[in-house]
Amino acid sequence: MARAMFDYTKAVLKKVSFDANLFCKELKKALQRLLPHEIEELKIWVNSLIVQNPQLNQCLIILNE
Q: Is a pLDDT exceeding 90 seen at residue 13?
């Protein structure tokens, strides 16, 4: 079940990656729902997504809180 939530979260974040504000909002929600080890995996995934979409760089602040 938890892995399904992680995969769902990645799908949502990928879909909203065109808008930095939406991405940040969804990222905050994801950090509340996911397990600690999934959050670490998500951080790695988000960093690779930011390389492809530099406008999302402002959302790194959320990951480092």
A: yes
